[in-house]
Design brief:
Elements lengths: L5 H6 L7 E5 L10 E5 L2 E5 L21 E3 L16 E3 L4 E2 L5 E5 L2 E2 L5 E6 L2 E2 L5 E3 L5 E2 L5 E3 L5 E2 L5 E3 L5 E2 L5 E3 L5 E2 L5 E3 L5 E2 L5 E3 L5 E2 L5 E3 L5 E2 L5 E3 L5 E2 L5 E3 L5 E2 L5 E3 L5 E2 L5 E3 L5 E2 L5 E3 L5 E2 L5 E3 L5 E2 L5 E3 L5 E2 L5 E3 L5 E2 L5 E3 L5 E2 L5 E3 L5 E2 L5 E3 L5 E2 L7 E3 L5 E2 L5 E3 L5 E2 L5 E3 L5 E2 L5 E2 L1
Parallel strand pairs: 4-5, 5-7, 6-8, 7-9, 8-10, 9-11, 10-12, 11-13, 12-14, 13-15, 14-16, 15-17, 16-18, 17-19, 18-20, 19-21, 20-22, 21-23, 22-24, 23-25, 24-26, 25-27, 26-28, 27-29, 28-30, 29-31, 30-32, 31-33, 32-34, 33-35, 34-36, 35-37, 36-38, 37-39, 38-40, 39-41, 40-42, 41-43, 42-44, 43-45, ...
Antiparallel strand pairs: 1-2, 2-3
Length: about 450
């Protein structure tokens, strides 16, 4: 095979008619290289063109051995000590070897760098690439920037694609579009939006604005001012959401927080899921701090017991394990598996106790029930007070009941008062049927 030197090529003219300027086969039939000139065009056929700097090493640089297309203008006094580069366009700087440069005012300062198209790029990492756009930089090995303006990759193998003023500083990190986004962790991703940051390993900040994925494997999608500050936490949409617990999840809403393991806060405003596997859905300023506790809607409520639940209402409290409060205002279920449904300032403090509606009612006995009315108390085991005012069953009794009326008091087990006022049962299994200020004193006694 024949190799042409630069001196031989310079001596060749370009005739007006087609002419074979060089035919290697005339001296060696095995060689195929020909140089053919037609007008202003010269064709190399069956040849390799070897351009080198004479140092016998591709990796050496002495300012020679470059293939330059154009006039190679240098009004900016750019440094040009590199060798074995392909250079197209003006005002470029090349200080190493193996580069490909095309466009305007690029600088390629490390080996095998690439700057194609656009203007004002810097490829200072070995094997770095910048393609298109304006004023971008790839400063580490194998880093790349594609399009956009003022983008920078300073992590190894990092990539920025499009957008404005985006930065990928982590190794293998990527930024796709948007403005002012940063991928700082290894293998981190920031995609779209504005001023989002993926700080940690394999973290993601996608869309929205001013979001921060601070820990490894966290993710934020959309929304604004979100924060994922525990491993595997996820924040989706909303404003100011914070995923602070491992595997925590915040979906929409305003300044909601998922603070514990597998905690979830969905929608609403200022809600906090701080118990392990707790959930808050909608509502405002509620806190689920018990393990597996849940709050659905409402305002300023809390579920502090394990597996406790609050559904709606205002300032309701489920403090007992498995306790439930449904609606109403300032109700409390503090007993094990106790429940309150509606009403105002009611409390079920006995295990398995229940209060339904009314105001200032208390079910303090185990499995006791108060339904409606006001200032009623069911303190006896399995006792019940149904409506009325200031009715009660004593704590020392069981299975007693009061149905309506006022100021009635069951003091014996299995006894019943049906309405009336000021009635009392002292006898076991006794009954008062309405009337006023009656008292049973014997077992099984019935007073009309």
């Amino acid at each position: 095979m024949t190799t042409l030197t630069l001196a031989a090529l310079a001596a060749l003219g370009a005739p007006a008619q087609a002419e074979v300027l060089y035919d290697a086969s005339q001296t060696n039939p095995a060689d195929t290289c020909k140089i053919v000139a037609v007008g202003n065009e010269v064709t190399f056929q069956g040849c390799n063109i070897n351009i080198n700097n004479g140092s016998w090493s591709t990796a050496s640089a002495n300012g020679l051995g470059n293939l330059i297309v154009g006039y190679n203008e240098n009004s900016n006094n750019a440094t040009r000590v590199g060798s074995h580069n392909v250079v197209v366009g003006p005002q470029h700087e090349y200080t190493s070897y193996g580069a490909v440069i095309s466009g305007h005012s690029h600088a390629v300062t490390e080996r095998y760098g690439v700057a194609l198209g656009g203007q004002g790029h810097l490829a200072s990492g070995a094997f770095a690439t910048v393609v298109g756009g304006y004023g971008s930089e790839a400063t580490q090995g194998y880093a790349s920037v594609f399009g956009g303006a003022s983008n920078e990759t300073s992590g190894r193998y990092a990539t920025v694609s499009g957008g404005l003023a985006n930065t990928a500083t982590g190794d293998y990190a990527a930024v796709v579009g948007g403005e002012g986004n940063r991928a700082e962790g290894q293998s981190a991703l920031a995609a779209g939006g504005t001023a989002n940051t993926a700080f940690a390993t394999a973290s993601v900040a996608s869309g929205g604005s001013d979001n921060q994925a601070l820990r490894s494997y966290t993710a934020i999608y959309g929304g604004s001012d979100g924060l994922a500050d525990a491993q595997y936490a996820v924040v989706v949409g909303g404003y100011g959401g914070q995923g602070l617990g491992f595997y925590g999840l915040v979906l929409g809403g305003y300044e909601d927080r998922a603070e514990s393991l597998y905690a979830v806060a969905m929608g609403g405003q200022g809600n906090v899921a701080s118990g392990d596997r707790s959930v808050v859905v909608g509502g405002r300023e509620s806190v689920a701090s018990g393990a597996r506790a849940s709050i659905l809607g409402g305002y300023n409520s809390d579920a502090t017991g394990n597996l406790a639940t609050v559904c709606g209402g205002y300032q309701n409290h489920a403090t007992g394990n498995h306790a439930v409060v449904s609606g109403g205002y300032q109700n409390t279920a503090s007993g094990l598996q106790a429940s309150v449904s509606g009403g105002n300032q009611n409390e079920a403090s006995g295990h398995f106790a229940h209060v339904s509606g009314g105001r200032f009612n208390d079910a303090t006995g185990e499995a006791a029930v108060v339904t409606g009315g006001r200032d009623n108390t069911a303190a006896g085991i399995n006792s019940a007070v149904l409506a009325g005012y200031l009715n009660s069953t004593d704590a020392a009794t069981s299975h007693g009941s009061v149905c309506g009326g006022q100021s009635n008091d069951v003091q014996a087990s299995y006894s019943t008062i049906l309405g009336g006022q000021g009635n009392t049962t002292l006898g076991y299994g006794s009954v008062v049927l309405g009337s006023t200020n009656l008292t049973t004193t014997m077992n099984h006694q019935i007073l009309p």
